[in-house]
Amino acid sequence: MKFRKSAALLAAAFTVAGLTACGSDSDAPSGDSASSSTGIKGAVIGFAQVGSESGWRSANTDSIKAAAAKYGVDLKFTSAEGDQTKQIASIKTFITQGVDVIAFSPVVETGYDAVLQEAKAAGIPVILTDRAVDADPSLYKTFIGSDFIKEGEKAATWAKTEFANDAAVNMVVLEGTTGSAPANDRKTGWDNVLGKETKFKTLASQTGEFTRDGGKKVMEGFLAKYPNINLVYAHNDDMGLGAIEAIEAAGKVPGKDIKIVTIDAVKAGMEALAAGKINYIVECSPLLGDQLFDAASSVLAGKDIPARIITEEGEFNQAQAKAALPDRKY
Ligand code: AHR
Residue 210 and residue 75: Cα distance in Å, rounded? Predict the structure, then answer.
């Protein structure tokens, strides 16, 4: 709390200094991150993570912790292990502690209104990263993350082209955590492109909780029930990797007998794509740490920030995965 007051005073001082120094050389470091990092050193930031369900999540946690160290932030990090109640309890603790900024990636989309109101009443700004909430936007400063609907649309657009010459496609879906923004939006995105294409038949759709084990178990059930699956749409790489194990155990060839499209592009997913076991991956970047602390720095300096900060992402076929793998950081 102390940091917020002094940051606001400092911002006012900088504005005056900036006006008087106009036109002269500056000693300030160049680049957004460097200049922001000087403005947030020593701030106390509470981050309530979803959990550790996937390779993507581990990379996201690493990105946040590394950026906190780089920016000199006092990070209070908690992990909800997929439990919304636990995550809300963490946010309440941050409010009691009087941290300068609260950031979190919501486990599911709904149910955060009361705790967001509490943070607002305590005067603590909130930043959402990775996942959105269905709440009054005035309760948080910004949402930094991917366009999950677009990701679903990209996956479906690939499938439409890949199966252009097939009369019928029997698909199964490995959904993410029920009620989470990525699970909801990746379904919406897919349906936007293929919802009316009757040749794509969804045999079954079930949550694998974004985990490799979940994807494997659900896929085993699908394979036992449906002998004619052509396509798996997995809402993340980890579930796709679990599906590969189930498909191989069933004596089929992933990527050939059953095609697989996933979302994330973590290293293990990209390796499976390079090996031909996954057919296509839509990227979802977990590297949100710098953007988070840049945004927090601006908020603490009293600056306006965009209500939505979208991350740039690509798509990969087998050749593109092979080319990208040597430099893949996560
Ligand atoms: O919210 C992002 C999603 O959550 C990632 O796609 C998935 O791997 C993670 O668990």
Answer: 26
Counting ligand 1 atoms within 8 A of each CB, the residue from 236, 263, 278, 283 with the most, and so the one to mutate, is 236
Give yes or no: residues 244 and 161 share one domain. yes
- Tell me how far CA of residue 324 lies from CA of 76, 110, 157, 234, in angstroms: 34, 36, 22, 21
Collect the ranges in the chain with pLDDT lower than 50: 8-37
Task: Evaluate whether 210 touches 181 at the Cβ level (below 8 Å).
Answer: no
Q: Is the CB of 54 under 6 A from ligand 1?
A: yes
pLDDT of residue 161: 98
Distance 54 CA to ligand 1 centre (A): 7
State residue 14's pLDDT score. 37
Q: How many structural domains compose the chain?
A: 2
**Measured in angstroms, how far is the CA atom of residue 90 from the centroid of ligand 1?**
20
The crossing angle, in degrees rounded to 10, of helices 2-20 and 32-40 is: 130
- CA–CA distance, 278 with 280 (Å, rounded to integer): 6
Does 129 lie in the same domain as 251? Answer: no
User: Do 164 and 265 belong to one domain?
Assistant: yes
Pocket flag, ligand 1, residue 130 (CB < 6 Å): yes
Q: Which atom from ligand 1 is nearest to the alpha carbon of 105?
A: 1
Ligand 1 centroid distance, CA of 7 (Å)? 33
3-class DSSP state of 276: coil
Contact partners, residue 89, CB within 8 Å, separation at least 6: none
What separation in Å is there between the alpha carbon of 43 and the centre of ligand 1? Answer: 28
35: domain range? 3-146+286-316
Domain assignment present for 325: no
161 and 31 in one domain?
no
Residues 65 and 137 occupy one common structural domain = yes
Q: Identify whether residues 97 and 131 lie together within a single domain.
A: yes
Report how far ligand 1's centroid is from the alpha carbon of 80 (Å).
14
What digits encode the pLDDT tens for the residues 83-99?
Answer: 999 999 999 999 999 99
pTM beyond 0.85: yes
